[in-house]
Amino acid sequence: MNDFVELQRLISVVLRRWYLLLVLMALGAGAGYAISLRQTPAYQATTTVLVGQITQASSITREDVQLSELFAQTYADLAVRQPVMQGVVEALQLDISWQQLQERVRVTPISGTQLIEIRAEASTPRLAERIADEIAVHLLELGPERQGEDEQDFAQSFIQRQMNEAQLAILEGQQRLDEVEREMEATTSSTRLLALQEEKAELERLIADQINNYVQLSGMTAQSRSPNSLTVIETAHADPDPIRPRRSINLMLGAGLGLLLGLGGSFLWEFLEDTVKGADDLAVHDGLALLGTVGRIHGRTEPGRLVASLEPSSPVAESFRMIRNRLLMGSGEQPVSSVVITSPAPGEGKSLTAANLAVIMAHANVNTVLVDADLRQPSLHHLFQLEEEGGLAELLNGSGQNPLKLLKKTSVAGLRVLTCGDVPEGLVEQINLERVSEVLECLEQDADAVIIDAPPALLTAEAMMLANQAGGVVLVARSGKTRRRALRQTLADLRATSAHLIGCVLVDEKMRPRKGYHYYRKREKASK
User: Which residue of 114, 203, 286, 476 is most buried, as measured by CB atoms within 10 A?
Assistant: First the structure.
């Protein structure tokens, strides 16, 4: 399960930064295309050279094959040496050095064959073909064919004359042998028969010698070419399309590099910006229930941000109704009568959440009391436009007043507010826990629900004190502001006490409009 949650979180990180991925992929593809335009097109031509002959004898041994491959490897190495490269540069009058030409040439033997493949690169297909063919010509000049055509022709003609003479001698001997055999069948003289037998044996010996001589001469003819001779079997041909630049490959590589940078940047951004982004970031905390998510609340003035009162049909108000229902129904237990609303740090929407939740509670005919317990930065009197004096500070200061007499009515029926009051110096450090408990008990007996706006949990000690005295705690996290590290620390502090953590509310969450909400608004307008 944890692995699945982590996978969901990784996917959410990627989806959250989708625009960064698209931008970097587009920039990478554009960079790849720009690089392709700046590159000089390169064309490649290929020619093939045969070392030795395909068959040199009636039977080929393993040693013959290995010898041919060795010759092929040797010639491939010689083809890129200075004599050949310099000769090609001079023959074609190229304006580059032989070292530069060497970088554009690849000569490789084809494994398991007697073939050598010569590849040459140039700025045009025709020039690539000329370079490849010229390399083959200079390579042939290093082969045994340099002996001279006259010498080879003389050797071939001499061997051929000897073979013709041997063939004629074999035919004449066979003809005389046939005559002797016929005469032996016809003679009756024993003396003549013995002479013919001796002649027959001599003829057979001479024919056998001539046949053996013919076979040897024939082998010499087959081996007249050296096993390391060279023959061009395929002249150079160039592909009309350049081998470089490959614009499609450069585009894909650029886009892929941009994607990798985008993914790396997204995860680095997520690591450095350690804030809660959505409900998925809250799901990783075991035992932390999500009571609901609230969209961004807009309002130019403090009273204008009481959306639950001013815009009761808005999606934000509907979100608070869902939170209210979960609080009233409880989690398989009796619903709590007093709830502390706090957050890890200031400016995360706890006071606004407490105020709107109290309004929604009152709309459900729940007798609700809202307490401003943030003695350092009170704000509820601004939201409801109430006088600040005469509030919680006076009760905690030991004035002995009845808390119910200090409750102030609001424009929302069923909702009363206990403001912060005038906080004297040193009151925060001298809060009496028994007095806090007495005040809360009195309010709980008079109201159906008591909602307490507590100070930030990580900055003050009052939040944990109030959490222990109240029936439950609701933690507020603001999307894009609340630090995950601060949230973890707050949860650890709450669990280390006897406080009952009900769940968490995520505010300023980017929410899509619900279809049901639009339908509800249409019916509402039609009924008016």
Answer: 476
